[in-house]
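Hi Y.,

Following your request, here is the sequence exactly as I used it, all 119 residues.
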Amino acid sequence: MSTVEIRDGEYCAVIILDTLAELPMPNIRKIFKLMKHAPGWDDSLKNQLAEEQIADFLKASVTDSEASWKQASSIYTRMWRFSMERASQANNRRLLADVRRTKARHDRFVRIQTIFNET
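Below is the corresponding structure, written out as tokens. Let me know if you'd prefer a different format.
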């Protein structure tokens, strides 16, 4: 569980990177703006280190989430069966839910990375 410390004068925020994707998007935007526009020289240097850590984390997260999405998609393609049986339909729903969940996670990390790069 890695953390990043963002400073702006007296204010200090400690962000747990593993839970970054669970934060609301407006809060993520505010954190990134605060980090990139810190006025103090000392704060700016500390925030540059945090910025590098977040950039590395986001790059790795996007890559990992894309790989898990592709893996879930390939499992769905191989395992999906047309059948009227309840067990088969339940398995198809589970497979489809896995693909949708991993795709949504990947899209979220891509959005966070886009916000990070734009601020």
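Helices lie at 25-36, 41-79, 86-118.

Thanks again,
Q.
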